[in-house]
Amino acid sequence: MSLENKVAIITGAARGIGFAVAKRFVMDGAKVVIADVDDSAGEAAAEDLKGLGEATYIHCNVAERLDVRNLVAETLNAYGDIDVLVNNAGIVAGADFLDLEVEDFDRVLSINLRGSFLCSQAVARHMVEKVQDGGEPGCIINMSSINAVVAIPNQVPYCVSKGGISQLTKVSALSLAQYGIRVNAIGPGSIMTDMLASVNSDKAAKNRILSRTPMLRIGEASEIAGVAAFLASPDASYVTGQTIFADGGRLPLNYTVAVPE
Question: Which residue of 21, 91, 148, 205 lies most exposed, with the fewest beta carbons within 10 A?
Answer without folding.
Answer: 205
